[in-house]
Fold this protein.
Amino acid sequence: MRVDKAVEQARADYDAAPSDSHAFPQSAPGQLAATAYLFGLDAPEVSKQMRDS
């Protein structure tokens, strides 16, 4: 039971810590597909990638 209490305390501490959330445009599915294309890689269709996530 001590482990459960420690895990719950760690979760509470993590959730209480302030954090900023920022989008990374470089990781947008269309951007990744374009980058893969430029490097000669096969990438899944963007629409399929969006549906499966």
Notes: The radius of gyration is 19 Å.
